[in-house]
Amino acid sequence: MSAARITLITAPHCELCQHAKEVLARVGADYDIEVSVLSDESERGSALMMEHLVAFPPGVLLDEKLFSYGRLSERKLRRQLDKTGAARPRPKGGRTPLTPATASTSTGLGVVTTNLGGVPPGRPRDQTVPPTSVPRP
């Protein structure tokens, strides 16, 4: 698989553009992406904004197609990268980490653990962990 090409069109003094850069930095840690940053004041950036009808910055193009403009959704971008099959880099040592991130909530029926990702293939995404000692009424 090849790297997904992302073009970020920014404007000076743009808070949403800074947010988009932060999102792309986080996503870049998990996916093989190539990011190009262009100013909307540059000839190329301005032309891309006009061509793709980007109403306001930041504009995000994914593989030369408009993905979004305005506030960049990290979740939406990750979903799209998963759909397109963007290659994920392997961690050093060539092994894939299998430790999932989890969140636990205490309920009247016991503790429920929800898997937040990093699940090895073949395992369910959500798991309910039965309580070991829950007082019965």
Please give a quick description of this structure.
It is built from three helices and seven strands; from the N terminus they run E-H-E-H-E-E-H-E-E-E. It has 137 residues and is α+β, with helices and mostly antiparallel strands.
Provide the gyration radius in Å.
20 Å
Question: Class of the largest domain, according to the CATH hierarchy?
Answer: Alpha Beta
Span of the ends, CA to CA: 56 Å
CATH architecture of the largest domain, by name, is 3-Layer(aba) Sandwich
What fold name goes in the CATH topology slot of the largest domain? Glutaredoxin
CATH homologous superfamily descriptor of the largest domain:
Glutaredoxin
User: How big a fraction of the residues is strand?
Assistant: 25-35%
Helix and strand run:
EHEHEEHEEE
Number of strands: 7
User: Helicity range of the residues?
Assistant: 25-40%
Detail the poorly predicted runs: 93-134
Gross geometry: globular
SS class: alpha+beta
Question: How does the major sheet shape up?
Answer: 4 strands, mixed
Strand order of the largest sheet: 2-1-3-4
- The overall pLDDT average reads 74
Helical element count? 3
Number of domains as seen in the coordinates: 2
